[in-house]
């Protein structure tokens, strides 16, 4: 079973940010301090808060967990390697996928203005580009673009290879929610898509098709006693 938590941080203010900042680990604080814009700082700090919420809900010690990074820069809990997770965020949305097996997840805003033709040439295979261009309506084409983008990102994050693996070395078939990897033994993975608030598309990649999804607002975290520990007042 893989669980997906989607946290909307649009209502979180600076005071709540400061409270959460005091609660996270020192490395997370240093990471947040490097950002210039407040929205980037929010996504950084609240990502750890969401992870703690999920870990506590799975029976773990939310304040005893230790986040470290593998050589491929994929984060993991050195305090509990049976707990697998992956984070993604954009705009006002943070997404966490977690469970006892490997998972990758990506979220993107659908209404972003980008050069689809240029990016498609760099990251999409011929099969994917053909599927993208099957539709002429610009709105639907934009949706297909980000469906492909998030699926490919989620697979790369599932593998933990990052940019060391070419995005054009494999094709995603979103009609059948499967994958064709041309460079190695193809893994039996599947993709789960979620469309949120007509603004975001979320895609996770994992071996199981059993996915549990939950949408959270900042009020849900405020009501959780685990998040209120150590005097944190949200």
Description:
The structure is a single chain. The protein is of the alpha+beta class. The chain has 7 helices and 11 strands. The protein has a 4-stranded mixed sheet. Strand 2 and strand 3 form a beta hairpin. Helix 5 (126-133) packs antiparallel against helix 6. It is globular, with a radius of gyration of 18 Å. It starts with a strand and ends in a 12-residue tail after the last helix.
Main traits of this protein?
35% helix; 7 helices; three-stranded antiparallel β-sheet; disordered C terminus; 11 strands
The radius of gyration over CA amounts to 18 Å
Helix content: 25-40%
Q: Write down the secondary-structure element order.
A: EHHHEEEEEHHHEEEEEH
Net shape: globular
Low-confidence regions: 230-234
Name the structural class.
alpha+beta
Strand order of the largest sheet: 4-5-1-11
What oligomeric state is this? single chain
Report the average pLDDT across residues. 86
* Alpha-carbon distance between the two ends: 31 Å
- β-strand amount: 25-35%
Tell me the number of helical segments per DSSP (H or I, 4 or more residues long): 7
Quantity of strands, as a count: 11
Largest sheet: 4 strands, mixed
């Amino acid at each position: 079973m893989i669980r997906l938590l989607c946290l909307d941080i649009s209502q979180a203010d600076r005071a709540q940010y400061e409270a959460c900042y005091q609660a996270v680990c020192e490395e997370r604080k240093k990471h947040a301090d490097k950002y210039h814009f407040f929205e980037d700082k929010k996504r950084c700090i609240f990502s750890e808060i969401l992870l703690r919420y999920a870990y506590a809900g799975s029976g773990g010690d939310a304040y005893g967990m230790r986040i470290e990074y593998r050589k491929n820069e994929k984060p993991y809990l050195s305090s509990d390697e049976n707990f697998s997770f992956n984070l993604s965020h954009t705009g006002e949305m943070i997404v966490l996928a977690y469970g006892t097996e490997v998972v990758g997840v990506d979220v993107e805003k659908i209404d972003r203005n980008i050069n689809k033709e240029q990016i498609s040439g760099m990251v999409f295979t011929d099969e994917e580009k053909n599927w993208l261009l099957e539709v002429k309506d610009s709105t639907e084409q934009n949706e297909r673009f980000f469906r492909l983008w998030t699926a490919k990102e989620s697979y790369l994050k599932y593998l933990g290879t990052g940019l060391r693996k070419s995005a054009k070395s494999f094709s995603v078939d979103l009609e059948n929610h499967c994958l064709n990897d041309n460079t190695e033994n193809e893994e039996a993975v599947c993709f789960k898509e979620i469309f949120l608030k007509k603004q975001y598309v979320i895609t996770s990649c994992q071996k199981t098709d059993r996915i549990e999804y939950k949408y959270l607002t900042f009020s849900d975290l405020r009501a959780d006693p685990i998040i209120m520990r150590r005097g944190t007042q949200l």
